[in-house]
Design brief:
11 strands, alpha/beta, single chain
């Protein structure tokens, strides 16, 4: 789920699907180092790569070709250095490398320039100052080694928290210095990544209320549910199953299916690309159950924005702060505002029977009724676009963010070396839980203590969450002990488990 933003940028020919490899039952190992720590936190013996000739292979760039300088240069960019003098940014997740053709390119950003590449041969090169990772692909046992003291790590992670819960724990997210995530607190927020523009929201209602009422009289349900991923951390099926006891829900996907899709819509790819036939089919419904696969602040996908675009009312459960981004205070129905599925069903029935009250949820289609200034300002000021060729995509935007800040960091280091008494060294930067942290998964309906021990959801997602914490703490332990043998991670996790069992952890 939620891979469309990356796929929509695939026109340059380099993006590939990213597999979700769950942490449940899998031990991930890592080589670790010290770039996230200040000097006084470093354990004895940490390598100082700036003074180690072994980390400066002279031929690292010999087989690489960098594209010539393009015609565009940021208005504040006076960087006239040639390619051999620029810092290098390495995209460790090559499938996301936002350039084509070739594997290396010069970028001229707002205030400075860098070389960017997906060629891992430059990993140990002195001028490789930052490595950019894709969160879904980040696996401890695949982390680049050694992590040099002069290198920072950057995290790009716009997908569901379920793809890698290790990033939702402090020890995991602290590995990174720069972040671009769905959280508004990240360094380069991607919060509205699924909302292309204000015009997307303002588009006309696809199916009129009169037509929806006519279809209701012919037996169409008031509520649509369409999901094909059934076993997810948010446990949405459990809630929907309870809701179905009190109101008609037409469910077309693999999950809780009670109606067949028309044959011409059975290819699920039509849903991903907003194919017209599929969009018109689902637009017939008054209410769309918009249930995210993970519940995390600011994690909002097409499940929320697409019904608003079509002129349907989303019945939403996902980001607990989704109201912060709605067009006004009456445009979506938030599941968590209701004490029970029964109470929600009663409210939906009331709106289904009262055209005047229902129509109030569509008033935001009139621009004057959009009152959320946070939403308007975010759409107006974001520098990246979604399917907008006049703006960079957010992959290019984030690499320029890292480029400018790495150049500023390097300049501050040079100034400090020249005149330490008058120029302070740059402050170390480290991500924290506000950049990504997502809570422990909880049942979609009811209390966890009431679930049977053999419940499938219970056996997977809470364990996945806690096992990822063990891994994150194991990584942090290895860093503090200056260990680099990945086989020791299991030993650390075992030791922590024993300590926890004895009440010492």
């Amino acid at each position: 789920e939620s891979s469309e933003p990356l796929q929509s940028m695939a026109g340059r020919g380099r993006l590939v699907p990213c597999a979700c490899l769950g942490l449940f039952g899998v031990l991930c190992w890592v080589w670790v180092s010290f770039a996230s720590f200040t000097d006084d936190q470093l354990p004895p013996g940490a390598p100082d790569a700036l003074d180690r000739g072994a980390f400066q292979p002279q031929s690292a760039l010999s087989e690489m070709e960098f594209a010539s300088v393009g015609p565009y240069r940021g208005p504040g960019n006076n960087d006239r250095r040639n390619n051999k003098e620029l810092p290098i940014l390495l995209w460790w997740s090559g499938g996301l490398f936002p350039h084509f053709p070739g594997d290396s390119e010069r970028i001229d950003c707002a205030t400075s320039s860098c070389l960017v590449t997906s060629n891992r041969k430059v990993q140990l090169y002195k001028r490789t100052t930052s490595i950019i990772f894709y969160g879904t692909d980040f696996r401890a046992y695949e982390a680049p080694l050694p992590r040099l003291r002069h290198q920072t790590w950057a995290l790009f992670h716009e997908e569901s928290p379920m793809n890698n819960y290790i990033l939702s724990h402090g020890p995991g997210i602290r590995l990174f210095n720069y972040t671009a995530t769905f959280r508004r607190e990240s360094d380069y927020p991607l919060t509205l990544q699924w909302l292309p523009s204000l015009d997307y929201l303002l588009g006309p209602v696809v199916v009129s209320l009169e037509e929806k009422n006519r279809l209701r009289r012919k037996g169409l349900g008031p509520v649509l549910y369409m999901q094909s991923h059934c076993d997810v951390p948010s446990d949405r099926n459990r809630y929907v199953q309870e809701l179905m006891k009190y109101i008609q829900v037409d469910s077309y996907g693999k999950c809780l299916n009670n109606k067949p899709l028309p044959v011409h819509l059975e290819d699920t790819a039509t849903a991903t690309g907003e194919e017209a036939g599929f969009m018109n089919f689902v637009a017939r419904y008054k209410f769309h159950l918009a249930m995210e696969n993970g519940l995390c602040p600011d994690y909002m996908t097409e499940k929320l924005w697409r019904p608003l675009h079509q002129g349907c009312v989303p019945v939403y459960r996902g980001s607990p702060v989704a109201a912060d981004w709605m067009p006004n205070d009456r445009s979506a129905i938030l599941v968590d505002d209701f004490a029970s599925p029964k109470a929600l069903a009663e409210f939906l029935k009331h709106l289904d029977e009262d055209d005047e009250e229902y129509a109030k949820y569509l008033e935001f289609k009139n621009p004057s009724r959009i009152t959320n200034h946070r939403l308007l300002e975010a759409l107006e000021t974001r520098e990246w676009g979604v399917n907008d060729m006049s703006k960079p995509n957010y992959l290019n935007g984030f690499e320029c963010y890292v480029c400018d800040r790495e150049n500023a960091r390097l300049a501050a280091e040079r100034a400090n070396r020249k005149a330490p008494k008058t120029n302070r060294p740059p402050q170390s930067k480290m991500a924290n839980n506000s950049h990504m942290g997502c809570p422990l998964p909880s049942p979609g309906y009811g209390h966890v203590k009431d679930l049977p021990a053999d419940d499938g959801w219970l056996q997977i997602w809470p364990q996945d969450y806690w096992q990822s914490l063990d891994q994150a703490e194991g990584l942090e332990s290895l860093i503090r002990l200056n260990e680099s043998d990945p086989s020791l991670l299991w030993k650390h996790i075992q030791n922590m488990a024993v300590s926890r069992a004895r009440g010492k952890h």
